[in-house]
Predict the structure.
Amino acid sequence: MVKAAAVVPAAGSGSRMGAKIPKQYLLLAGIPLLGHTLKALEASPVIQDIVVVTGPGEEEYCRENVIKGLGITKIKAIVSGGKERQDSVYSGILALSPVPDLVLIHDGARPLLNPAEILAVVEAAARYGAATLAVPAKDTVKMADEDGLVARTLPRERIWLTQTPQAFRRELLLRAHRAAQEANYLGTDDAGLVERLGLPVKLVRGSYRNIKVTTPGDLLIASALLAHPAPDARDPAGK
């Protein structure tokens, strides 16, 4: 079976959540959001090592309040994140030891990850070099101009909504990050950095359940989804 190491960026402040603590430490069914993410990675036979990237000064809090209580054993390092998510991911990649061939990146605030998704995206990365979990768009997507008027309607059948995990050959991911740094380019995901190099990124169909918890409403949705496991975790909401 193909193997990978995981980097979990969890350094965000969670300002849109409006909570007193960073969103990754908010409880979902009695467990911190980040804890659900780490449990999923811990349970996957594909994942060998995990590096968690926290906000500055949160390393010990994360260790004591998330990792120890859940018995997570694959954690190899907890490192402090940078100003931007991109900086945090780069720090996490450099902290991986031993150096893996494949690296999986997964947001700490996506707690509903399942083993099939981990395996699928890592296998795709082993074959194509880079892969991302994504789901087909259900709504029609329109591009706006600067005045808020519709510039054009994008073909929905070709629109995919990108998620994490994303997985890459390590040397390719480092090359993409370093090229972005040299160009002072700030992307919104790691797959986008690889795309800048003109290299292919394989889309792997994921699950609509794999939401990123950003607002209080997202936390309610995640709680409801967690209480009702889907029969088919790869596509529970249908096409």
Remarks:
- Residues 4-227 form a domain with the Spore Coat Polysaccharide Biosynthesis Protein SpsA; Chain A fold (CATH 3.90.550.10).
